[in-house]
Amino acid sequence: MRHLLSTRDLDRATAVGILDVAEDMADVAHREIKKLPTLRGKTVINLFFEDSTRTRTSFELAAKRLSADLITFSAKGSSVSKGESLKDTAQTLAAMGADAVVIRHSASGAAQTLARSGWIDAAVLNAGDGTHEHPTQALLDAFTMRRRLHGSASRGKDLDGLRVTIVGDILHSRVARSNVWLLQALGATVNLIAPATLLPVDTSGWPATIGFDLDTAIDDDPDVIMMLRIQSERMNAAFFPNAREYSRQWGLDDERLARLRPDTMVMHPGPMNRGLEISANAADSARSTVLEQVANGVSIRMAVLYLLLSGSVKP
Amino acid sequence: MSETNPTLLVVGAVLPNGSRTDILVEGGRILRTGTGLTAAGATVIDADGLTALPGLVDLHTHLREPGFEQSETVLTGSRAAALGGFTAVHAMANTSPVADTAGVVEQVASLGVRHGYATVRPIGAVTVGLEGQRLSEIGAMAQSRAKVSVFSDDGKCVHDALLMRRALEYVKTFDGVIAQHAQEPRLTEGAQMNEGALSGELGLAGWPAVAEESIIARDVLLAEHVGARLHICHVSTAGSVDVIRWAKARGIQVTAEATPHHLLLTEDLVRSYDSRYKVNPPLRRSEDVLALREGLADGTIDIVATDHAPHPVEAKECAWAEAAFGMVGLESALSVVQAAVVDSGQLGWADVARVLSAAPAAIGRLSGYAAPFAEGTIANFTLYDPAVRRSFGLEHLAGKGVNTPYLDLELPGRVVATIHDGYATVLDGALVDSSVVAASAVAASALVATRAAVARG
């Protein structure tokens, strides 16, 4: 693997391989010394053009646990906010000897542009590009699902036959896009639920079924229900009338939660709007995987950094 | 006293109608056509195997001067035009200052005359500062030395319905035409590419076809209501072609243009996130490309215009959403038209002469292009070799912009020579030196002045 830009080009074997390496990385978290010497001497640069405390911290922790040298470069208050271009910023950091660049950017395709432009030689890891993809999020989601299903016997397994329902702002969600492609590669089926205003106009090419009604989707008894965050700016742009109506129609409230099987996984990529797309009970219930997702995020990011920077299969 | 330009003898060219002829150019005009012509002391151009086309006329060029000289100037843009076979270009109004007063349009026109590579016809802004609030001084621009007859806020849509109605009515007074950039602004806020299956997958905000089609539908009805001329810039969707076809069948005075890139390229290129493919209106589906070609062949689309939009390198070396919209197109236009509609058999060379010369000249009220190759007319033509193929490269560009979508693409054809007002601007496939062209332009205008004096007696 040279770069990780999207999940769309990951096949089953590659995806399962990443998840298996992440299992090894997860074991490290349970050791007394949570650190591997694997990436000693390698330099990882976190290049965050967009604020994201969670993802940035997760990548920082992942790089540190692998003993890489890490620099985090946030756009706010830096030369980027003074108008420096992606090209100049990336080349500046590359000149400092970066082996991998983890990039978060508000523009869709920014990671691909960085990887294909010839501006830098470093491995590029997409940590979220606009409304396009967020591949490590989908990988950690799949990892979480697999662990809930198979526990310590997860290695080598995919998600064959798993029925996943994703609810919310599909149109603007990089998490949804990355999940749709990855879940299909792993053999799961995906059902997307949203008001028509928050779906792309043409999803005929997506390996997913589309619906508008959350109650019908819950009656279909999904194995996983993933709630997406509603951004406050959507409420002012006529995507739906107001938060109350959205919550009533597409929120996972206590009544809907009660209709789910006890072992249905309730997922959320965070940060959550409690009381809007997900009730407090749903977020804190035994079905909820929210905190597992956060913990697994570090393992997945360790796995991806390891695979990009060392190239071999076993740590 | 200035020198007169040399007599030119073009030997063995094939005209758009397929006939073979020599062309003798003297005193700025086509003196004679026919076979076996001779002229002592003439510069002979061997045109064996070459197609002679009337001088191409671009109705939609961004020359960027004044104000954006880092992107293009009248000199560099008209050199690009000459290398593409053009002898006249219409310069869009979105300069800085905006071409919304007689002073600016006269300055642009006079720069064109001084450099001499092509006739530069300024387009005037419809509204002051392109702001869509108040009409600009359309009368003053029409009656200026630049004789503006095309008015456009291109880059922005005249979206206020009442203002558009008034603009259409008002330009009637001066036999002008409104060239509309059809883009409903609210439907395209933040838009990055054609809205459809691919935009959803790539996570790029969509530019829906309906945002173009709804404005065209409104404007053809307004043009009908007030009996005015309307021109639609860069038509890009199959639905737009349908609306215009319907409007023409009703007898509405509407004309329409398609760009070379919309006739050849599709949105699939955007998958690379390579910002050279970012253009407004965006590249569309292959169904749209085919509908545009069909519309051009059946006359629904009247002309091909380049929308030549040069940008400095840094405006494209960035993430897709941050990149500027636009492609350069003058140098490649004829080759792309050949690739898209001539080699497919949809257009013959006589049609190409119509859509790239006579028709745009008629819309822009540019005289001298109605009867190409007639004896006694001003000599504006280009010699084109349709038989060669070349891998399109930076060396084939002459303007300042290198934002071409055709790099490394194999394209047919090559402009071998361009004759503007009776003198060469391109010979042997290369631009004639700018000082020579400028001197030729002085000699050509001196000749016009002498003729006028003789006519006055």
Please give a structural write-up.
The complex is a heterodimer of chains A (315) and B (457). Chain A is α/β, with parallel strands linked by helices and 315 residues long. Chain A has two domains: 12-133 and 296-309, Aspartate/ornithine carbamoyltransferase (Rossmann fold, 3-Layer(aba) Sandwich); 135-293, Aspartate/ornithine carbamoyltransferase (Rossmann fold, 3-Layer(aba) Sandwich), CATH 3.40.50.1370. Chain A is built from eleven helices and nine strands. Chain A has helices at 12-28, 53-65, 86-95, 110-116, 135-150, 174-185, 214-219, 243-250, 254-259, 280-284, 290-310, and strands at residues 43-48, 69-74, 100-105, 123-129, 163-167, 189-193, 209-211, 224-227, 265-267. In chain A, the strands form two sheets. In chain A, strands 7-6-5-8-9 form a five-stranded parallel sheet, with helices on one face. In chain A, strand 5 (163-167), helix 6 and strand 6 (189-193) form a beta-alpha-beta unit. In chain A, helix 1 packs across helix 11 and helix 5 crosses helix 11. The longest helix of chain A has 21 residues, at 290-310. Chain A is globular. The two termini of chain A are 15 Å apart. Chain B has 457 residues and is α/β, with parallel strands linked by helices. The model of chain B has no long low-confidence stretch (mean pLDDT 96). In chain B, helix 2 links the parallel strand 7 and strand 8. Chain B folds into two domains: 8-52 and 378-456, Urease, subunit C, domain 1, CATH 2.30.40; 54-363, TIM Barrel (Alpha-Beta Barrel), CATH 3.20.20. In chain B, the strands form five sheets. A five-stranded antiparallel sheet of chain B has the order 5-16-17-18-19. Chain B has a five-stranded parallel sheet with strand order 9-10-13-14-15. In chain B, strands 3-2-1-4 form a four-stranded mixed sheet, with no helix packed on it. Chain B is built from twelve helices and 19 strands.
